[in-house]
């Protein structure tokens, strides 16, 4: 049998009451015996004889017994009240932040359990706060991959908030590092791509300056090459300016735009270039109108790049398809060509700056490696996204935009 179950605070209070009652009875009995002895020998002092004669000895004994019982109960319960006072003081200290409090566990009753619980609570709080402090120290040192364990209670919310803050801070620092690396890569790429045509231009101009050509025909040949390199250099600078303009938050001026009519007009403008390449441009639209809110001047730049790429690299397929439709609340535009496929290993990088699938082919066609990066930046600035897919049958560039509504105009304007 577990005797600790019977050693409770109620039993202790009952024992105090019994102890007080027994002590009171003993004292009252002794006092009665003393009074009788004094009465026999006529040693009672006034007013005791008068009280005994007029009130009676039993009422006096009962009254005296109650008073003695109360006094005895207060005397015998002093240890209990002191213990309760210690618990109260400990709770006040814990409330003020002094978590190194250790209460003595004096008994196995409810008060002992309370004291043990307070000690355990203070210890758990102290250890958890120490873990949080160590976690904050690690965050201050830049170690964002060491999250604070999230337990139960209010401090768990604090720990969770700190972990979220650390994660956001880590992402911000990583984004800043990526931005710095991106800037350095951009400078490196621009330097390389500017230096190559500029070196050729300077080389041919040096030949002309030093009269190292044989005749006027060779001179015109050198001038023509220098001119073509200068045109390539100008295109690179224009593309670079366009890319930095869009990525630096160039203001978007959106308006209601029908993609079907917009792309039909663009296709007509590309008819001479398509005929020269032997390519037929075909437009398919599942609906008559697809309305979006967009900046037409910027969007035409991205579609021109996609269409010119499709004609340039899909000439072998003899056809370029522009498919327009709606799906799941989005406007969809697909540029499809049937030329040489893009290698699977190159697909994830086609929208990167200065990335060329084939370096030699890009040089022949005059590509700067910024065209698709500009396309991606413009489409994302309109709240859309673009993907590339390629297999042995076709290559598809798919752009998706939110369908137009009056609220989209406000959102695009404010986000720009």
TrEMBL record:
GO terms for molecular function: ATP binding; phosphorelay sensor kinase activity. It is found in: Cell membrane. Its EC number is 2.7.13.3. PROSITE patterns: HAMP, HIS_KIN. It is a multi-pass membrane protein. Residues 78-130, 131-174 form the HAMP domain. PANTHER family: SENSOR HISTIDINE KINASE CPXA (PTHR45528). This is histidine kinase. It comes from Paenibacillus taihuensis.
């Amino acid at each position: 049998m577990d005797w600790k179950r019977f050693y409770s605070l109620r039993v202790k209070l009952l024992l105090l009451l019994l102890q007080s009652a027994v002590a009171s009875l003993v004292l009252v009995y002794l006092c009665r015996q003393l009074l009788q002895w004094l009465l026999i020998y006529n040693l009672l002092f006034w007013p005791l004889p008068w009280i005994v004669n007029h009130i009676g000895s039993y009422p006096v004994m009962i009254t005296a017994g109650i008073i003695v019982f109360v006094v005895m109960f207060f005397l015998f319960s002093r240890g209990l009240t002191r213990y309760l006072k210690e618990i109260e003081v400990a709770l006040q200290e814990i409330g003020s932040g002094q978590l190194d409090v250790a209460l003595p566990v004096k008994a196995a009753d409810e008060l002992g359990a309370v004291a043990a619980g307070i000690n355990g609570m203070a210890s758990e709080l102290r250890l958890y706060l120490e873990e949080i402090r160590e976690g904050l120290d690690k965050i201050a040192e830049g170690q964002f991959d060491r999250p604070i364990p999230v337990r139960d209670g209010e401090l768990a919310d604090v720990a969770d908030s700190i972990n979220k803050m650390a994660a956001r801070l880590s992402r911000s620092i990583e984004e800043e590092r990526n931005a710095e690396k991106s800037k350095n890569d951009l400078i490196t790429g621009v330097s390389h791509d500017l230096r190559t045509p500029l070196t050729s231009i300077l080389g041919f101009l040096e030949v002309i300056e030093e009269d190292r050509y044989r005749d006027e025909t060779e001179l015109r040949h050198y001038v023509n090459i220098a001119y073509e390199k200068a045109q390539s250099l100008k295109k690179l600078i224009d593309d670079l300016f366009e890319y930095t303009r869009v990525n630096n938050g160039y203001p978007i001026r959106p308006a209601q735009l029908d993609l079907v009519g917009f792309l039909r007009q663009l296709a007509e403008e590309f008819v001479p270039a398509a005929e020269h390449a032997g390519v037929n441009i075909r437009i398919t639209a599942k609906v008559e109108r697809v309305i979006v809110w967009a900046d037409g001047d910027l969007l035409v730049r991205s579609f021109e790049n996609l269409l010119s790429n499709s004609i340039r690299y899909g000439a072998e397929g003899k056809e370029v398809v522009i498919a327009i439709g709606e799906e799941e609340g989005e406007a969809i535009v697909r540029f499809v060509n049937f030329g040489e496929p893009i290698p699977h290993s190159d697909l994830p990088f086609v929208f990167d700056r200065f990335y060329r699938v084939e370096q030699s082919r890009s040089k022949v066609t005059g590509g700067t490696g910024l065209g698709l990066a500009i396309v991606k930046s413009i489409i994302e600035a309109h709240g859309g996204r673009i993907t590339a897919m390629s297999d042995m049958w076709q290559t598809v560039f798919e752009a998706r935009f939110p369908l137009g509504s009056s609220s989209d105009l406000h959102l695009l304007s404010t986000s720009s």
